[in-house]
Amino acid sequence: MKIETKCIQSGYKPKSGEARVLPIYQSTTYKYDSAEHMGKLFDLEEDGYFYTRLANPTCGAVEEKIADLEGGVGAMLTSSGQAATLAAVMTIARAGDHIVCSNSVYGGTFNLLDVTLKKFGIDVTFVDPDAEAAEIGKAFKDNTKALLGETIANPALTVLDIEKFAKLAHSHGVPLIVDNTFATPVLCRPIEFGADIVIHSTSKYLDGHAVALGGVVVDSGNFDWAASGKFPEFTVPDESYHGVVYTEKFGRAAFIVKARAQLMRDMGFAPAPMNAFLLNLGTETLHLRMPRHSENALKVAEFLENDDRIAWVNYPGLASSKYKPLVDKYLPNGASGVVSFGIKGGREAAGRMLDAMELAAIVTHVADARTCALHPASTTHRQMTDEQLEECGVGADLIRLSVGIENAEDIIEDIKQALDKAVK
Ligand SMILES: *Cc1c(COP(=O)(O)O)cnc(C)c1O
């Protein structure tokens, strides 16, 4: 099946007489006729449900759909995108290990690795994703267990050379984890380019309507944990699960089963069935929304580039972007919906422009159906001076626009009238 069909048909498969639409199994627990049957589930001897922290039929159907969309062997939904990143890293690495990560990743990912996971003994080295492979290779150590990058980084909008990153990771015997939140599997499927694990904040385009926080971890099934020799947790008996050896018992699904059996069990970042239901509705129209987000964003970026009140525009889909060759290779059907730009007149002009926007709402969220805008210098980063902002790559003049799926001319009209008011 093609991606459009998978968006609609994958996952939930009702039997004769069952609900046509994925039901919400609003139940923490499941009933069994014999203790022995339930015992088999606890021993991972049989598939089934016993407690919603570990698995739920509504969540399970959505996991199957997203695994199918990304081309993986299995997936695990989490309560948020942050939890998905945490689950992916902690299934692979433990205290004493090290991760190599692109330095332009989402701020939450950066903090998780740079601050919180360091407290748990997992170290990180950040690398410039645009550097030569040999240069990035210098960051790898004997205890490095994974490489991490973002297809289109939020909010830097750098585009990842996925094949370069995959080759680097594999030549060091470790998996590549790709955060595919901004691209979604409709615009790019990182597994086709060598990624081993794909993660998402589903709170963004996958849901697409800004109604449900969530995350997902997808396992390609392609990484050979045993052959690498670096991952004893996958190849020696897990005493917390009656001595199961994940690679032997679960083969290509070793990673995603271990993620659920150990981390979901012990950390409990489970999604609500209601949120999984809403996420499923969002995924049904993903293949219609992503091309429109991308088309609209390109039109907005081109308009901004031709307006002399604008100092600079960053959108990887622009012909003038240094990432255009990577977009042509990895994102041929569109570079997604987020555009950032600088307005002449700095912090004050940017603030005035945001206040003057009527269609675009001021929100910290990105990546839903409605156009929205953020001026970090007067909101999320307001405690920083212009100099400090410059240092962290978020200039005082920077406005981030998440271009929605309204009519592009209406969005551009709104930008025009706001610019007229902001720049005299
Ligand atoms: C928002 C976001 C996250 C974090 O996801 P939450 O659902 O907010 O926890 C992770 N990665 C990227 C790229 C994001 O945009």
TrEMBL record:
One of its GO terms (cellular component) is cytoplasm. Its cofactor is pyridoxal 5'-phosphate. The modification N6-(pyridoxal phosphate)lysine is found at K204. The keyword Transferase applies. GO terms for molecular function: cysteine synthase activity; O-acetylhomoserine aminocarboxypropyltransferase activity; pyridoxal phosphate binding. SUPFAM superfamilies: PLP-dependent transferases (SSF53383). InterPro entries: Cys/Met-Metab_PyrdxlP-dep_enz, OAc-hSer/O-AcSer_sulfhydrylase, PyrdxlP-dep_Trfase, PyrdxlP-dep_Trfase_major, PyrdxlP-dep_Trfase_small. It holds the Pfam family Cys_Met_Meta_PP. GO terms for biological process: cysteine biosynthetic process from serine; L-homocysteine biosynthetic process; transsulfuration. Keywords: Pyridoxal phosphate, Transferase. Belongs to the trans-sulfuration enzymes family. PANTHER family: HOMOCYSTEINE/CYSTEINE SYNTHASE, O-ACETYLHOMOSERINE SULFHYDRYLASE. This is O-acetylhomoserine aminocarboxypropyltransferase/cysteine synthase. The lineage of its organism: Bacteria, Bacillati, Bacillota, Clostridia, Candidatus Ornithomonoglobus.
